Amino acid sequence: MMHFTKMHGLGNDYVYVNCFAETVANPSELAVRVSDRHFGIGSDGLILIEPSRIADARMRMFNADGSESQMCGNGIRCVAKYVYDHNLARTATEFSLPGQETFPTSLRIETGRGILTVGLEIGADGKVSRVCVNMGQPILESAKIPVAVSSPSVVNLPLSIEGQELSMTCVSMGNPHAVFFCEDLDAFDLNHLGPIIEHHELFPQGVNVHFVKADSPTEFTMKTWERGSGITLACGTGACACGVAGVLIGQTGRIVNAHLPGGDLQLNWCEQDNCVYMTGPAVEVFSGVWPW
Question: Which of 14, 207, 262, 277 could disulfide-link to 176, CB 3.0 to 4.6 Å?
């Protein structure tokens, strides 16, 4: 028997397991089983909240197909909420978003991307309502994303897919993202193009796929095909990558509001430290016991 908690960030839902108290022998297999929306709990994947020797907690994230990813932007917000709300760790250290607001308390979460610092907004009920994450500096070098091209970076690269001419910008936020800015989001069948691009020969480790429309210099709307999970309501690292791509190709400014199918994220690619700051909600849905 294993206790779990279902949480989501803008509808990007995962099954979370408190590994301070539970042991998961085969997380890849478990991710596939719990993610099934008909015969399991139903989720975009599995996230383990583990003890860390170098931070307040460690996050491990597994996609619905069982593959492990380095980072999940919506997931880390939920991990931070769980760690604070369930008293696994608490600090009184302030977290300041450069040039903007200050959060009264913070946590440090170990991820595949390294240790990320998160600022917590505490609601009237004493629980976390909103989380700001320093997602670190974007990775723009083709070889490090990775993208199999000869150019040092990928910005507005023409790409022909299924007879459609696209313009691609690639960014890694600890996991690889291919961003396509366009005038009409409905002109593209994400169910069809998503898996084709995810497994394209240009991406030796696969890629997350995003189609984006710039609504103004301060906001954009996006749709996502997540590597290993398919279409999701939100992708935090993807939103950050789209924000960076928007600046690189001159479509948006550094501070933007990202409209995702599941809700909005506030993004700031800060000039002072070159880090991307992402702010959004985290919600605990229910807890249960999995008879595994």
Answer: 207
Instruction: Kindly give the confidence (pLDDT) of every residue in the chain, 292 residues in length, as a single tens digit, with 9 standing for 90 and above.
Output: 999 999 999 999 999 999 999 999 999 999 999 999 999 999 999 999 999 999 999 999 999 999 999 899 999 999 999 999 999 998 778 888 877 788 989 999 999 999 999 999 999 999 999 999 999 999 999 999 999 999 999 999 999 998 889 999 999 999 999 999 999 999 999 999 999 999 999 999 999 999 999 999 999 999 999 999 999 999 999 999 999 999 999 999 999 999 999 999 999 999 999 999 999 999 999 999 999 7
DSSP secondary structure of 215-228:
EETTEEEEEEEETT
Domains of the chain as residue ranges with CATH: 2-134+280-290 (3.10.310.10), 142-274 (3.10.310.10)
Known catalytic membership, residue 270? no
Catalytic site includes residue 72: yes
Q: Which of 77, 65, 54, 68 is nearest to 235 (CA)?
A: 77
- This prediction has a pTM of 0.93
